[in-house]
Amino acid sequence: MPPVSLDARTVIEQMEAVRERQPLIQCLTNHVTTGFVANVLLAVGAAPAMVDSAGESEIFAREAADGVLVNLGTPHPAQCDGIRAIDYGADTMPPWVLDPVAVGSLPVRTALAQELLSHSPTVIRGNASEIVALAGSGQGGRGVDSTLGTDEAATAARDLAARTHGAVAVSGPVDLIADASSTVRIANGDPMFTEITGGGCALGAVTAAFVAVSPSPLVGAASAAAVYAIAGEKAAGDAAGPGTFAVHLLDALRSLSAADIMSRADIS
Amino acid sequence: MPPVSLDARTVIEQMEAVRERQPLIQCLTNHVTTGFVANVLLAVGAAPAMVDSAGESEIFAREAADGVLVNLGTPHPAQCDGIRAIDYGADTMPPWVLDPVAVGSLPVRTALAQELLSHSPTVIRGNASEIVALAGSGQGGRGVDSTLGTDEAATAARDLAARTHGAVAVSGPVDLIADASSTVRIANGDPMFTEITGGGCALGAVTAAFVAVSPSPLVGAASAAAVYAIAGEKAAGDAAGPGTFAVHLLDALRSLSAADIMSRADIS
Amino acid sequence: MPPVSLDARTVIEQMEAVRERQPLIQCLTNHVTTGFVANVLLAVGAAPAMVDSAGESEIFAREAADGVLVNLGTPHPAQCDGIRAIDYGADTMPPWVLDPVAVGSLPVRTALAQELLSHSPTVIRGNASEIVALAGSGQGGRGVDSTLGTDEAATAARDLAARTHGAVAVSGPVDLIADASSTVRIANGDPMFTEITGGGCALGAVTAAFVAVSPSPLVGAASAAAVYAIAGEKAAGDAAGPGTFAVHLLDALRSLSAADIMSRADIS
Q: Is-contact B110 B129, C-beta < 8 A?
């Protein structure tokens, strides 16, 4: 892959492509934030479908989904069955995102994450502790929170991307998105994202929506991160706390304009 | 059944009956929108109880529930067991609503929906694609979204109602509610309902609350659809996007007045 | 235990201790209100972790959690396995809260609640019907709602506390929190709490966060109840209904000040 440089114009094109093509995103995701994740997908213009049981997940991925999210936040046996039923190597498999929530010391999700890693996810999205743990060089964070800074995961991200031939997105105060040949940093966002549950989960879903329509995993993942973070900045501006922030985030994702992205995007 | 014509006055009476009698509604429903569905039931004055495991669902339906909702959005094995444990033909079975989410090509829910159809649900509520697929004449929609207009499901709705001796409600820009002898159309609502998750699921639950207190399935289902759609119109009026819409919908359902219904109801 | 008297100053100290120490609270809780419970924990300054599957729950309780919530609202087989996998008697077990939702006539949760009771929860939190049913002297409420007043559960609460050597919190218009030697009443709160789903579940989680940092179960449970109820009063003040109330509750919990507690606390 030749190195990619991302600018605000490209981010806007990806946002508009999601709104126009309304990709159908199948989510096999944790039961804590399922409703919020579905609402965020709708707000960016995608169509969510939470089809995650073993008898239906493979058919839906093969015949209907434009993108798939696999989030390991609550790996109950029935959902693990649904995740394993998908044929990730099939020609019909759409782009997919692995979100290895709290991977590291917890055995069920850690083993499943390694198994999924061998199927080369289009994008892996996590916080710094999760990315380092998945790459095999750390023990994970504190619950779902990272104990490392984004840049401490840069090498792990590039290593993972080289193994999957996809992109790896490290979320944090500055987001870092890497593939084997390029690294993009996005310095947008707001600390309020850490005060609501599902902030990361929803970004994983948005990433699946963007890679479903984008020319490359890196462009899709980085554009998703930029749109999501900029909407968060707008939402935080008129939020009185985490309750109103989550509500306004949905409104901001729905109404985000090209001008918002041009004026706020901080990409390097 | 003699043909029924519904007017705003009847809708108001049903709304007031729900608020006064506070029916206890047992929900066996998908895990995406469970909390939203419970909050909508509370907002209309009903009492939600999400009792859906196999060891408890039959007892609760028999001894406690005034109405039951069965929604097939996420048919995990444990919940399917809970759904199948209920004795739908028992004398003690209260009115119940089947919401056949995304029925059609997905095998687990499609088989279960057909099985439940043989137990004659009091009301079936779905979008046009779901109703047509359940009646055996279509393949279902795109994920949870309909690819047909409401009127394209009118014949399927009447056919299903004739088989179940109940009512069938087709949700869409204009809602169509039919039983074997009557058809009611409700032209209230707002496109914002399609921009949040659970808009249809919650209407299924509201329908269960209304048929628990109404003189007939048709009157209950049509009154539920009218109240819900009119509250949505009010909520959309001061919403800045899907986040605030969902929040205001709960407030509007709670505070909806007889005057709101008299002035807005568009029933034919 | 010597009798404890609680004042507003102590409540403030506990609130500040939670914010400073950010206890990591493992929740094995019902699937209706999981996201709301996680958001409430974040709003009080704690860190939620919904680790509830059998292969992970014991490890997390032993190695990571500062407090544990066990809520029996939707006792599916897989979650029951996760709940039973924890070694409640281990030296490494942190303080934990049992929330016996709708215990009484429903057999799965009632049997599991009795089993957990034998492991001496640090705090038991429920409504009056649940506490009386758990103590063996009643049949439970109507669904998740109490059919008894708080004071009708006072004897049952003290009996349970004597058996567990912990505290028992009875939620209602006036909260009653008892251990074997003391009883505290908190007359704060707002009727709006009964119009949203998860109002009780979230208080169970907040209680786990407070007992994780407090000098005694009684002080932790009573301080949690006071902070939560006072935040509810503030939220209700500018709510237009249950939708805005739930949103403002999160904002109010996040921004609650010592002055708010000093001016509003009604503790006896």
A: no
